[in-house]
Design goal:
lyase; two-stranded antiparallel ribbon; 4-hydroxy-tetrahydrodipicolinate synthase activity; globular; Dihydrodipicolinate synthase family protein; Aldolase_TIM; DapA-like; alpha/beta
């Protein structure tokens, strides 16, 4: 499947930028798929105004592949979305593993109806740059690709600007999620895409949870041989946006309106720090992100969108002190939550 085959409305949605929450996995106490709450989550993200969903990604738990849930979870999200709304939604499937596995997952996602694959390179840590490019090219032959620069703390591989130039030169790459949580490495990706002459084709999506709003509103000037190219992040694909999503959509729209202007309101710039403070608790920064998935689960559990914090790996849970941090940011930044929106609609989503 080539990107030219994507529905034009959805292709435009991805290219112009949108909110893509990384979809969590709702489980029962027996660590089985909780289909009722999984459907409710999908409906929540749609009604909150997201432009699509990323399913089978880190927030969905990579371990779904080990317990036979990869296809069922992707199918459930696609079916729920199709039955809940008629507006265009960009459906992005997480792809992982060595080449044979990633290609098979790309075919599965494509056959279900997903428009693109977010390709994790965590399995390629020992591979050379040439081998990783060959891997990406093979997967791109099956489905349009969203690149993924994942931070090393949760399994990512450090990659050069030259790598991103070569990656962006692959014809079927349509976007890159930039999530190294590192400004130097973020700039490496931007410079690489610019060097490939691909800024018009490859949409830049932030995954930098430590600077979400700044990434979404500020211009980035790239210099090459005395020539300046100005570019912007178009959207975000974030685990952080799996919670308080209705509020995140409003923040995203404010950031879009602030772009291309001579000045940005100071209050909007300052809001970046408050969002980052919330993320520090949800993502368990104090413990090197150990509780990042469970932290998001806790926020959703409090709202009734999940029944518990259970992860497929029993060792994945909240860290000591994390619940107190979530209490703190929930109290201090209550205006950034969407608790009232969820409370007003929860019964409908659970029906």
């Amino acid at each position: 499947m080539h990107h030219s085959q994507i529905n034009s409305d959805i292709r435009r949605l991805i290219a112009e930028g949108t909110v893509l929450p990384a979809h969590p996995l709702a489980l029962t106490a027996e660590r089985q798929l909780d289909r009722r709450h999984q459907r409710a989550l999908t409906r929540y993200y749609i009604d909150a105004g997201s432009g699509g969903l990323a399913v089978g990604v880190h927030t969905t738990q990579f371990a779904i592949r080990d317990v036979g849930l990869y296809r069922p979870v992707l199918e459930l999200a696609a079916e729920t979305a199709a039955n809940w709304t008629k507006r265009p939604l960009a459906m992005v499937a997480g792809l992982a593993g060595p080449t044979r596995q990633a290609v098979a997952e790309a075919r599965t996602a494509r056959d279900i109806g997903y428009h693109a694959g977010l390709l994790s390179l965590a399995a390629m840590k020992s591979a050379s740059e040439d081998e990783i490019i060959a891997h990406c090219t093979a997967v791109a032959a099956e489905i349009p690709l969203v690149g993924f620069y994942l931070q090393p703390a949760v399994g990512g591989v450090v990659l050069s600007s030259r790598f991103w130039q070569r990656f962006a030169s692959i014809d079927n790459v349509i976007a890159i999620k930039i999530a190294p949580f590192n400004r130097y490495r973020t700039l490496d990706v931007l410079r690489g895409v610019a060097a490939a002459g691909a800024l018009d084709r490859v949409a830049l999506y932030t995954g930098n949870d430590d600077h979400i709003l700044l990434d979404l509103m500020l211009p980035f000037d790239l210099r090459d041989r005395g020539v300046t190219t100005r570019t912007y992040f178009k959207g975000g694909l974030l685990g952080h946006w799996s919670v308080w999503t209705a509020s995140a959509v409003k923040q995203f729209e404010r950031c879009k309106q602030a772009r291309h202007k001579d000045s940005v309101p100071a209050d909007l710039l300052a809001l970046d720090a408050r969002v980052t403070d919330c993320n520090s608790a949800f993502f368990d920064v104090a413990n090197n992100f150990h509780g990042c998935i469970a932290g998001c689960h806790e926020v959703l559990r409090r709202q009734g969108l999940m029944r518990g914090l259970w992860c497929l790996d029993p060792n994945e849970s909240l860290s000591p002190g994390q619940i107190e941090e979530i209490d703190r940011v929930t109290r201090e930044h209550s205006d950034l939550s969407d608790d009232a929106f969820v409370a007003a609609n929860l019964s409908k989503w659970l029906a």
